[in-house]
């Protein structure tokens, strides 16, 4: 699961076509969706598709026009998509649609909800403007209130992506009713003020409603 039968290629010889040198997963010429097939569709193997516009069906010509798909600028997977539902929906809608007509489109739409049903979506976290401002002020390298705090070493978009990824992690309830998600990113994402050392672990705190409260490198 999650592999192409043939390697990625370009018209101009390149040992690592379409690779992002900052993302080791993109160096695998056979990988599907940056080796994360439950988080993205990857129609051509070049860049993972994170969001697709709805397909359109023409009853007169009996043809299906694929909706435009977009990818993350940095090639990372955006777990706020429907996850497995996106993949199955894409496959059912685009591949079965022309054969099954309306039935194929209905099948694709039905599969779209599977990712959420399996808990593979990060919709549980709502990144509010207030919450994101709090994180950037206190835990970004260029924050105005970050003295003595744990600091992320990435950009605003990279921090936002980490917060979204935490949505697939099972939370624990804190004494004040907030939810805490502790995630290991598998790579260094910042410096933990408690140890003064680089860390791959970060914490995302939300209200019970899912609204973002804060996020920071390290554990609570």
Structural descriptors:
alpha+beta; 11 strands; 220 residues; four-stranded antiparallel sheet
Can you tell me about this structure?
With 220 residues, this protein is α+β, with helices and mostly antiparallel strands. The chain folds into 2 domains: 24-117, no CATH class; 129-217, no CATH class. The protein has 5 helices and 11 strands. The strands form 4 sheets. A 4-stranded antiparallel beta sheet has the order 6-7-10-11. A hairpin with a 4-residue loop joins strand 8 and strand 9. Helix 1 (84-100) runs antiparallel to helix 2. The two termini are 36 Å apart. Mean pLDDT is 74; it is low at 72-90, 96-105 and 107-122.
What overall geometry do the principal axes of the alpha carbons give?
globular
Distance between the termini: 36 Å
**Tally of helical runs:** 5
Structural class: alpha+beta
How large is the radius of gyration? 20 Å
> What is the count of structural domains?
2
Share of residues in strands: 15-25%
Identify low-pLDDT runs.
72-90, 96-105, 107-122
Order of helices and strands: EEEEHHHHEHEEEEEE
Bin the helical content.
10-25%
Mean pLDDT: 74
Q: Could you tell me the number of beta strands?
A: 11
Spatial strand sequence of the major β-sheet? 6-7-10-11
Largest β sheet strand count, sense and barrel closure: 4 strands, antiparallel
């Amino acid at each position: 699961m999650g592999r192409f039968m043939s390697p990625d290629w370009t018209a101009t010889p390149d040992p690592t076509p379409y690779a992002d040198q900052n993302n080791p997963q993109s160096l695998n010429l056979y990988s599907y969706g940056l080796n994360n097939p439950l988080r993205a569709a990857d129609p051509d193997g070049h860049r993972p598709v994170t969001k697709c516009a709805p397909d359109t069906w023409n009853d007169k010509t009996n043809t299906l026009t694929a909706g435009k798909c977009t990818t993350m600028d940095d090639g990372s997977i955006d777990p706020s998509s429907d996850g497995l539902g996106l993949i199955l929906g894409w496959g059912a809608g685009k591949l079965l649609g022309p054969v099954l007509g309306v039935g194929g489109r209905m099948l694709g739409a039905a599969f779209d909800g599977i990712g959420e049903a399996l808990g593979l979506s990060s919709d549980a976290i709502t990144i509010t403007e207030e919450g994101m401002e709090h994180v950037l002020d206190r835990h970004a390298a260029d924050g105005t209130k970050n003295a003595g705090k744990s600091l992320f070493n990435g950009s605003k978009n990279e921090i936002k992506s980490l917060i979204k990824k935490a949505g697939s992690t099972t939370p624990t309830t804190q004494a004040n009713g907030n939810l805490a998600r502790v995630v290991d990113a598998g790579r260094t994402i910042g410096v933990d003020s408690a140890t003064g050392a680089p860390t791959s672990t970060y914490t995302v705190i939300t209200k019970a409603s899912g609204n973002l409260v804060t996020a920071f490198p390290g554990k609570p």
